User: What shape does this take?
Amino acid sequence: MGFFNFEPLTLPPEAEALRGDVRAFLDEAMADKRPVDRAFNWMGRDREFSRKLGQQGWIGMTWPKKYGGHERTFLERYVLLEELLAAGAPVASHWVADRQSGPMILNIGTEEQREFFLPKIAAGEFSFCIGMSEPDSGSDLAATRAKAVKVDGGWKLSGTKVWTSGAHTADWMIGLFRNDSDPASKHEGLTQYLIDMKSDGLNIRPIINLAGQHHFNECVFDEVFVPDDRVIGTVGNGWKQVTSELAFERSGPERYLSCIQLVIEMLRLAKDADDPALNEELGRLTAHVMTLRRMSLAVAGKLQRGENPALEASVVKDVGGVFEQALPEIAQRLLGDEPTLKDGTDFQEVLAFLMQEAPSFSLRGGTREILRGIIARGLGLR
Assistant: This one.
């Protein structure tokens, strides 16, 4: 039977030393941001901000210097992410590329792919999106139906990807397609491709969410040509590759800090309120945050040691999603203010925004049912 291994981890001095530099940078770069702007957290997009981070050496910071990286540790990167998220920095333009597309290219890409993509990602110049989910498939990636047909010099891709975050502003996608229409198992015959988002035959349609924001997209492929040198990894090995990739997506501090601006606003109000119930609940929420942080740090430690954190990452994502979705309701119950996005207090505006965004927190990165299936298999229960 499997088990969870959340080995306690203390951040080393070089990681903590970075924290002050990042805070000083953010104090200047974020000086004009309102609390409701910061509530966008890692969904906020700002290409110029990403370029500034790249100039600081804070994108791709663990990668080899020959590819534009800085050969710093995963734990230093973890501190950077904590500070960016706590400040509500607009990091979405480089987030996916830094978190998972770049590491994937580094680990299994060709030398030509590394030399072409990684320096531009590290400079904040290339933005990536992920083409995994499909209509009527939920989070079951093995149900992928979008197909790749081999042609002279490359592949032609057809089908639809949905819930594709940031596809409307991305330069590139790593997409999962079925290259074998009749595999022995549905987990076989899948391949990943590096896709130029300006390709002929690729139609990007916006999906507007409850908050009126354009974050998600539907991407329709009509025989989109991808050359052979843009296959990433091994043809037919897409399932193994994509499940390894998701460990990067599910384990970071973004899985419990998406609603941190709401907690900050509650703490500000609590300073002027003589309310034991509010103080007790804030203590409970703080304990939850610190527990999730310890779990997430343990996953960062696994990555630093070169271990596979897929099981623990799924736990962090699941527990973090439950926690974050509960926060807006808890906040409104305790403080009694009505959420409003227009002419409200900072608390009311942050609350209104996150009430509308929170339903998506248990979808992105894998639905709760899929995550718990992964956890059950890891424990030997199915």
